[in-house]
């Protein structure tokens, strides 16, 4: 509760500063409307079926991307984390791919896949995959080697060791990766919708509002909604993680 109050106090302070800066004329109201205007626009947009459709399209693409990233990233992390030879063999290609920004891949993805929902989902999966996979690998490295050796000595298969020993132990690390990837995936989806000119989505709404119009309150309103969605996702997952892994001492903030 104390954290929530601190967050709200910081938000209110930011909005007041924004309002004051605009009202005293340090920036133009036309190009940078005050929050008193933007928040009213947000309220109006939430009653607009077309805008709600854009939000739903963005969140649906985000959900599918996160689901795919988990399905791919967790097994890949378990495998790479438990087989050092394989991890060393793939280290170069992984470190080559990981720093490539999503924006740089948009032309290639559009050429290969097209500009439909598949494009933003693919790029969001790409962006979200790395934190999940690397947190899983890190979690594997933290397992007591004696525990793993005991399981092997008892004749337990590698698959059984990974599923019944490694995965439960690494679950808090994996969840941290999912929480980090969740906001990254949302950024990737909205950015792709904006840069690739998707037919529907929050990014498309912001793109249309920012071209051929002086309604910059619409641009900021769409941006605010995207930011609120990101905050809700992160806060919701953080609260879920605290309840699911109360027994864990894992630092859920540091591993990325």
From TrEMBL:
Compartments where found: Cell membrane
Q: Which UniProt keywords apply?
A: Cell membrane, Membrane, Transmembrane, Transmembrane helix, Transport
CDD domains tied to this protein: TM_PBP2
Q: How does it sit in the membrane?
A: Multi-pass membrane protein
Question: Please, which domain of life does this record's source organism belong to?
Answer: Bacteria
Task: Name a Pfam family for this protein.
Answer: BPD_transp_1
Q: Which InterPro entries match?
A: MetI-like, MetI-like_sf
Q: Which SUPFAM superfamilies match?
A: MetI-like (SSF161098)
In this protein, which residues make up the domain named ABC transmembrane type-1? 55-237
Q: What is its main location?
A: membrane
- Family the UniProt entry places it in: Belongs to the binding-protein-dependent transport system permease family.
Name the record gives this protein: ABC transporter permease
């Amino acid at each position: 509760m104390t954290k929530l109050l601190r967050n709200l106090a910081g938000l209110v302070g930011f909005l007041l500063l924004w309002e004051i800066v605009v009202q005293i004329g340090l920036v133009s109201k036309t190009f940078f409307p005050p929050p008193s205007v933007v928040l009213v626009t947000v309220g109006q947009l939430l009653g607009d079926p077309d805008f709600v459709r854009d939000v739903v399209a963005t969140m649906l693409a985000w959900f599918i991307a996160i689901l795919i990233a988990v399905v791919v990233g967790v097994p890949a992390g378990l495998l790479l984390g438990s087989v050092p030879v394989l991890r060393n063999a793939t280290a170069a290609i992984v470190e080559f791919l990981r720093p490539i920004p999503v924006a740089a891949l948009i032309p290639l993805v559009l050429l290969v896949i097209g500009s439909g929902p598949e494009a933003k989902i693919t790029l969001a999966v790409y962006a979200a995959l790395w934190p999940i996979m690397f947190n899983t690998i890190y979690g594997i490295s933290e397992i007591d080697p004696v525990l793993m050796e005991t399981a092997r000595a008892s004749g337990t298969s590698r698959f059984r060791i990974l599923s019944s020993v490694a995965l439960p132990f690494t679950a808090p690390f994996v969840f941290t990766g999912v929480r980090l990837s969740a906001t990254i995936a949302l950024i990737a989806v909205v950015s792709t919708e904006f840069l690739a000119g998707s037919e529907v989505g929050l990014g498309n709404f912001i793109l249309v509002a920012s071209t051929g119009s002086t309604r910059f309150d619409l641009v900021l309103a769409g941006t605010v909604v995207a930011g609120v969605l990101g905050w809700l996702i992160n806060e919701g997952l953080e609260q879920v993680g605290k309840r699911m892994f109360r027994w864990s001492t894992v630092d859920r903030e540091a591993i990325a």
